[in-house]
């Protein structure tokens, strides 16, 4: 029996071709993908294509589009064995992270991929990324999907979606998962490290939690930063601070006064690291103790992309028991190391 994979094309470089008159890239009609890539017809799975009516640059992808994708997966969940989302590379980690929080009780693969070069280029990475992603999206064993989470496949590596970040705009090997090992790697064989795979609570049936709040601000701390600008900010539900190293910030009375005032206004403060690898450890250095004193939340080893989408998902979400701080500190779907 051939597995059925639903391919959702949202836009991005992978679905573009060069207009040789103007030299510019333009989106082609993705419903014709089988003509562009006849080798897809040789796959051991059946591929069904659902393109967005208007292909979007990844910089235009946001909460509205995340909901469209999540709801479309929900609508077709029982009809297909796996799902492949083609997406622009710049914000793919945000979409993968958001979907990981929204798709509850997932038991089937949801793979995202894209490319650095258009599918029609001679040196393109698009074909390998697309074909191998289809294999991963249709990978089953004993009638059970091997991958049961949201993942990104790029340049021979399968990565947990909410652990990824895009670290290169130039190289084909554009994504990294610095604080979690890879889920699999493709070569002559498709390798999977089953010990690294995520499994949902078996008592939770698949459903979509569409709750997303945009009442959030992300701010990177830098030396010499004028904290007076914080006083000009409107009140928000969550402020994510990206601080130095394992959780330090310049230590003076002004810092304490400013951050405490933000907390007193009812804003939750989440602290994440500017370092790609490693995480937050309150108390390791004296200059991190301020966050414990004001009741800030440690982001541990979460990525910035995952911290943002997790916060958006948790703010005032009626489907969670407990406070925002309690739920953010927990591992919801493999996004942090506990």
UniProtKB/TrEMBL annotation:
Active site: 13, 89
Gene: ansA
Organism: Chryseobacterium potabilaquae
Domain of life: Bacteria
InterPro entries cross-referenced by the UniProt entry: Asp/glu_Ase-like_sf, Asparaginase/glutaminase-like, Asparaginase/glutaminase_AS1, Asparaginase/glutaminase_AS2, Asparaginase_C, L-asparaginase_C, L-asparaginase_I, L-asparaginase_N
Name of the protein: L-asparaginase 1
Residues given in the record as substrate binding sites: 58, 89-90
Family: Belongs to the asparaginase 1 family.
EC numbers, comma separated: 3.5.1.1
SMART domains registered for this protein in UniProt: Asparaginase (SM00870)
An example Gene Ontology biological process: amino acid metabolic process
Organism ancestry: Bacteria, Pseudomonadati, Bacteroidota, Flavobacteriia, Flavobacteriales
Single annotated GO MF: asparaginase activity
Pfam families associated with the record: Asparaginase (PF00710), Asparaginase_C (PF17763)
